[in-house]
Every structure is written in structure tokens, then in C-alpha cells.
Amino acid sequence: MTTIRRRVLVSGRVQGVWYRDSCQREARALAVAGWVRNLYDGRVEAVFEGPADDVLTLVNWCRIGPPRAVVTEVEILEEPVEGDAGFRIR
Question: Is 38 a catalytic residue?
């Protein structure tokens, strides 16, 4: 299976709604590596690395997020694989 890496920038009401915690749970359930963090401009940034199908599942999850989130935009950037292990909140 092909390993890919994607950086995702999520805009909308995505801070203070358990977005990072929910994202970490979703990533760990799929055994996808990477991290998630809040940005100063109100967006959430996440990096996912793992099997292509699982990473794309997470990217699609980011379009909706947890129940209290209101996602208005998702920017997706392809990146070279770095060999990350585990998933953490920054």
C-alpha cells in the first residue's frame, strides 16, 4: 500500500470545539501518524501520514470535524513522506 503525507488547514469554527482531540482519536483509530495544532489565526493545522486510503479518510473527516465544529474551508497540501510515527496534539 502506498504511504502518503498531507497537510490540512481547516477554517471555520474549529477552535474550542474539541477539534484537535477528536482529530487525534480519529487518526489513532486509523493508525495514521502526524500531528494537529491550533493556529493563531483561528484555523487548525494537521499533518497526516500513512496508507493513502486512511489519510484520505482523515482528510474527508476534516471537512466535517466534531459535532460542534463548523468547517467553512479545507486546504490540502501534498508533502513528501517523512516517516512520522504516532499522532500527537501540538
Answer: yes
pTM, rounded to two decimals: 0.96
pLDDT band at 1; cut points 50, 70, 90: confident
Domains of the chain with bracketed CATH = 3-82 (3.30.70.100)
CB 54 within 8 A of CB 30: yes
Q: Please, what's the largest Cα pairwise distance for the chain?
A: 36
| Choice among 28, 38, 60, 88 that is catalytic | 38
What is the grid cell recorded at 41?
A: 489565526
CB 7 within 8 A of CB 45: yes
